[in-house]
Write a structure and sequence with these properties.
Layout (H helix, E strand, L loop, with lengths): L2 E6 L2 E7 L3 H5 L12 H6 L13 H13 L4 H14 L1 H10 L1 H8 L3 H7 L1 H4 L6 E4 L6 H5 L9 E5 L16 H14 L6 E7 L5 H4 L14 H18 L4 E4 L4 H11 L4 E4 H21 L8 E4 L3 H16 L4 H5 L2 E5 L2 E2 L9 H4 L19 H8 L3 E4 L9 H9 L5 E4 L11 H7 L5 E4 L6 E3 L2 E3 L2 E2 L6 H10 L7 H18 L13 H18 L11 H8 L8 E2 L1
Parallel strand pairs: 2-17, 3-5, 4-5, 4-6, 6-7, 8-9, 8-11, 11-12, 12-13, 13-16
Antiparallel strand pairs: 1-2, 9-10, 14-15
Helix pairs in contact: 3-4, 3-5, 4-5, 4-7, 5-10, 10-21, 14-15, 14-22, 21-23, 22-23, 23-24
Amino acid sequence: MDYEHEIDEQKRHTITVKLTDYALMMNPLLNKGMAFSAEERDLFNLWGLLPPRQIDLATQRKRSWEACQSKQTDVEKYIYLRDLQDSNETLFYSLLCEHIETLMPIVYTPTVGFGCQRYSHIYRRPRGIFISYPNQDHIEKILENSRFDRVKVIVVSDGERILGLGDQGAGGMGIPIGKLALYTACAGVYPGYTLPILLDSGTNNPELQNDPLYIGWQHERIRGQAYDGFIEKFILAVEKRFPKVLLQWEDFSRENAGPLLDRYRDRLCSFNDDIQGTAAVAAATLLSASRVTKIPLKEQRIIIFGAGSAGCGIARLLQQLMVSMGLTVQEAKQCFYLVDRAGLLLKRQKNLLPFQKEFARDENENSAWQSQQDVTLEKLVRDVKPTILLGVSGQHGAFHENLVREMAKHCARPAIFPLSNPDANCEANPQDLIEWTEGRAIIGTGSPFPHIHYRGQERRVDQTNNCYIFPGLGLALIALKATSAPEILFIAAAKALADYAAEHLTSGDNLLPPLKEIRSVSHAVAVAVAKQIIASGLNKLDPPDDLAKYLSDYMWQPVYVPYRK
């Protein structure tokens, strides 16, 4: 090991370091740059390798902020921040935490999507692990490296469905890197505990297949038994190397996402953020919306446009939440209408995926619903008169003016959530929604948007970002060494987020707290999830006497600590 921590109640006070001179400065977890003290420069042979002046973290942060802001485009800022993360992680996270509202859209959605598209062209230094199909027999050896000894959380993707951008192949590595950055920035998970992994099973993106700079395996994606066998070998190796790890599945195709989660969720503590995290933050936002509209969640009529794994995952978690409020499963299902590109999901369809079948409606409910093509989104809005319209379709402009005005005719406070990422795929612009509804709409978006201005009033747009859920949830799972992550934990997380919003928000139209409070939000979510973990008997760690303090102490702070040799 290059370093070891002395931990007193999970707070790091000193670090014992074996590296010296350039090797020390090249280690992003240990590098302090010009903040190395005179004593440390003596101990680790750093004199002359650094400028003579010694500066503190605040001064470094100021210089880095100035450099970041000097970049002309968001992609240039993304590249700068990735370079900073790969050279000095403490400084990177100090900067990210200090300017979280400004830098979150750079480090993650929407800019990370463009970073994935350009990944092969902006590649600088290695981070994480690329495991390609041709190297599947070497996975155990790849994971053996001693630098991974402290890993507690893995985010893994195969790059096939990156946000709303489709197949980005090996460039999808930007997503695991970005997600794990949020684990640290939002919930204080120590960066040395994190490992991003890209499972390179090929790509069907012709641009990547023909790009001479592409860094991945230039081969058509493997399918069927070959793909399943590749995933199984990966899981077997992870089980052997990291038996207590938290594994987060990220941005797999809708055909693979659900089956992979179902297949492995009981073998490893794992979850799929696209399905479960998205569902939890959507549920929390809808709970908050119900408080504004004064319509209980179990009485809402909900249209979900986008019947993939994310849309069905949202419906499934909301259904469970409604059952906990007193509805039967069948009564809860009647609140949902799921629509894909062809129209409303109907039971008579023969091409439904397994996770879609439970939310298909009976065509006999309405004489005009004899085929899916008969029930377009526009017709459904007229027939159902929804109180909530939620989009995870990736279809830009799908919530157009006539549709929104029709919804607003029958609903005093229409709740409209265009959640698709990035903003180029968003179903509607929040400014348009507020104007089309004469200021009455309650809005949440998947991507960040500027404030809404209407009749002299300004309103912050709530971004229903998964970062409100998964970092705090992950913190609780890691800190208590949980054995699994069942749906009840996501319900606990959703309720905790909604409760935090109700307690701390002063604006009546906002549904979620501002991102500047994300560490407090993550702590609140972690406490609620940890209580549920203990109540469900999923914890391997004995419950601490003061759970809130234990989780607070577990949260790493991006500050420099003294080194000794």
